[in-house]
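Sanity check

After download, print the first record. It should look like this:
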Amino acid sequence: MLACAVSLAGCATYSPLPLGEGQGARDVSQLSVDTSTMPLPALRSHRFDLSHGMDVTDVTILAVANSPDLKVMRDQLGVAKAQAFQAGLLPDPQISLNQEYLTHPLPGFRTSSAYGISEDITSLLLRSTRKAAANAQAEQVNLDLLWAEWQTIAQARQLFNQIVSLRELQQRLAVEQAALKPVDGVVRKALQQGNLTFDAASAGLNAYADATKRLSDNTVQLHQAEHDLRLLLGLAPDAALDLIGEPFQTSPTPDQVEVALASLPQRRPDLLALQAGYKSQEATLRGAIRAQFPALTFGLDRQSDNSGVGSHGINIGFTLPLFDRNRGNIAIEKATRQQLKDDYENRVLSTRNDIRQLLLDQDTLARQREQSQAQSKRLGEARSAAESAYQQGLLDWPTYLSIRANALGADMDSIAARDQQSQQAIALEALLGRTDLQPSSAAASQP
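Expected structure tokens:
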């Protein structure tokens, strides 16, 4: 009774946890983040202040701290730690109480009674493997969280760069639309007056319409990118995105890539997570092999029969391993281990090939960007000269529109090449990992 009273005194109590409204932050300038918890040293040393807008590092920090998906994964880590705690707990002993009352009381006879206490010995024997598997599983969840943070960092940088490029393109297309509107008016007037046929006027009519369509399409893409960034940052749909500063730039050298590749399985969180999962499965398999032996319980009891004769003794219970012998579970755990092994090796192989491909693409994209920028500059100068000549009446409108169209295409190609190179470089850095990022241990010592 005393043991029951002590155990009940430490019982958990229920407290409600109301659901939130899911509104998201509307004013980012009021948000604050403890940068000491960031997974990157560069982020931990950054002064986080959104009162003057968000640069690419601010966006990255806010994404790691406030991403709804990362919050859910942190909750999953809490569940995994609780499960590791549960796996280390000792099984509670079982107490049995029994009294048999006489249906018809007789002189010299009394109520019989039996009292006993027993413990599941098999559960005690399997505790070490059960605890090892749960701790390794918690470590895997922790590493999956770290990998998700890495991916969130890369996604935040890519969305920042994408929005910056789309906003730049938006301004460029708006300028083009405004410049073509007067020409469109001239062509339509000439068409109405009969000075132009529809065939001759089609180029002029299509130029303004094409610029308008491109502007509309770009606006839709910009809205989608801003929506994705707001969602990643955990912001309200109407929250302002005041982005400032330059896009994120990175360009690892071939030597840095080789060094990173050599130690990739020891650094990248997703590969370490798969290793932890394999370690957990090894412990689970060992537990299944141990569980093939007879399940054993041991107990002590004290009895008194109807005549008042008392006795005490021990009781042992075990299963006879004749049919099952846990062979099915052992086969399942062995097959699962093989699957995890192949999954890990496939991930490493595909990662190495992806990195090689991105590294080769970087050289191609760098040359393409350089050529696009040079072409954009040359055609930009031609556009300026053509605009001046057209305003002075020295250039016909079809030639003028042709030059403008070529210049606009070169400008769009230049922005697209810069954006593609940036996206690929960010993806390459994410795949390579960083030597200054080390996973923290999730499996603390458990009871």
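If your output differs, re-run the checksum step. Summary of this record's structure: The first strand starts at residue 94 and ends at 100.
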